[in-house]
Prior knowledge:
Elements: H1 2-22, H2 25-38, H3 55-60, E1 87-92, E2 108-114, E3 120-122, E4 129-137, H4 138-144, E5 154-156, H5 164-169, H6 180-206, H7 210-227, E6 234-236, E7 243-245, H8 263-283, E8 287-293, H9 296-300, H10 308-314, H11 326-331, H12 348-367
Parallel strand pairs: 1-2, 1-4, 3-5, 4-8
Antiparallel strand pairs: 6-7
Helix pairs in contact: 1-6
Amino acid sequence: MVGKKILAYICVLVGVVALGISSVPGIMHKIWDWNNKHVDRSSWWCKHNNMGGGDLVKLSYLDDVKKFWELKDYVFPRAQDDGKKNINLYLYGDSYTEDIPDSSFANVHEYHYSTKLKPQTYVLDTGMRNILVIEITERLALESFSGTGIYGVLQPKEPVEVPEVTKQAVPAAPVVAAPAARRKAYNLVSKTNYSQIINTNLEYVLFDYRCINQVRQYKADMNYGLFHHASGDVAISDNGQYIFYKPTVATGSPYSSYAPLTDADISNTVSILNEIYDHYKKQGFAEVYFSIIPNASTILQPVNYNGLIPRLYANRALKMPVIDIYSIYAKNPNPASLYRMGDTHWNNSGMQIWMGLVNNELRKQSASR
């Protein structure tokens, strides 16, 4: 009896410690990094670390399906410019753009990169042409601009003196609220995302070992081969050729390419984008651009697409100039050539198209000074 109690206490203690570790991103990153660098991949206690596929392969345990194996193939050639380095570029981006070096941007003197998780302050150099590019993946676009904006991520180091009337018109944080139903959905998503992250981390700490993952991979192979089904947060495309991040295709998901969108949703997002545009223009930026990277499902499985990107871009009230990669992707006769198989991100071909569009705008801005 005493032995059972001691065992129960040990299990509770292990669970509490695991929960604590799983709640701290810094510790989880160190565990992941240590596993990748120091653990023998043939050992039974090696963590799941797929070397051939992308993030979706790892999520679904489809390691044995070779067609989904595609490593990052990014190439970053030095941008062609006229040597007139008169642009300070500020890029607010995400995982799509985090690898791009400053040398790949044309006519750039200084390059500043920020994300939702990597905020920064700025002091604009009035001797340069300061350009802000806001890049975001489609699945996060509505959530990001449903009333939060990017003011908390990209802020001036010292307050910019503006007339009192302007301070009232452009507050320190957005005040335009999303429609009640969608705002409620986003609040729910935020809470759900947090719990999902904790659950995923707990899974990694307690159960993600090679001896267990072998069974998961066999099961994933069987489900894919026999039942046209993927596990976890991964879904198979209608034609069976691709795998998608499930929230981008799931019915009712606010991240989905097929979620119903009303004209009010579009108008509300345009209003917030205009507010952001006015805010940063008044801060001293010469121009502010906006660019949405389409979900893979949007391009590879366009039937019943809700039209979020083209509807935003076509809205006549939108002030912010756009870097429109969607239109080019949508017309591509071989859309599979734009995204990494087994991953949520673009491949080098898809990235280079976007880089070309950005550099075209930078050259125009450089020439106009």
